[in-house]
Amino acid sequence: MFLEDGIIINNIQISDDKYLLRVKSEKSYKQSKAGQFFMLKSNTFLRRPISLHYIDNDILEFYYQVKGEGTKYLSKLKENDVLNIQGPLGNGFTTDIKNKKILIVAGGMGIAPIKLLIEKLYESDSNNSIALIIGGANETAIKIIRRFDTSNIDLYITTDDGSVGDKGNTVDKTKELLKEKSFDIIYTCGPTVMMNALIKVAQENNILCYASLEERMACGVNACLGCNVEIKDEKSGYILKKVCHDGPVFDSKILNI
Question: What integer is the mean pLDDT of 17-28?
Fold first, then answer.
């Protein structure tokens, strides 16, 4: 983990309330992995946990949604402003795999860590094949996908209103796809209800599944109890683990859903 001042390269408004923040890093980019996150300093007492979206040479990219004062402050940052960043934090996705058929399912802001995940799964002559299902309320909600390289993946889009892709949700699309194709691994990130449903689908089909959990975080560095989740334990039944430190990515078999 590093604590450093990054220079803002740009802060692009993707849609009404969603932005892509690009920050030049001196150290942390070298240690960052798909699925990890950073704590970004804002004008509030607590930093804001933001998923790592992508790494472009020594530039870290963060895709975020304006929800409160902290993220509103981030949205006002401009080129050459200085932003203090803390990270990378947490355990990310397992990507050192080869010859696997992979399904990635992302909903809403769960799209954030997926761009880097796809790139890492294709590295080092992995011979992996990837299908990606993304979903959102409407076309605007998933506009960020236009900045992805989807030339080598099978892309499926769902929207609640049918404005782009299929009208429906990612869970139903996953069930439909599993009737036609087989997969070795499912990676998922998005709303809790969506991921819980997908985990059950993965279990029913005996597919290994990794889920990136979304929990409110205060410290982000294993110092408080703000992001506890229940994890299955052979001896005591369930124990508490911290999403910021033990996650955010977990093997779904140990999650209490």
Answer: 97
Q: What is the pTM of this model?
A: 0.95
* pLDDT, tens digit (0-9, with 9 covering 90-100), for 194-208: 999 999 999 999 999
pLDDT bin (cut points 50, 70, 90) of residue 124 is low
Q: Is 88 helix (H, G, I), strand (E, B) or coil?
A: strand
pLDDT at 56 over 80: yes
Task: Give the pair of three-digit tokens for residue 197.
Answer: 């449903």
Sheet containing 129-136, strands listed edge to edge, beginning at the edge strand earlier in sequence: 166-167, 154-159, 129-136, 101-107, 185-189, 208-212, 249-251
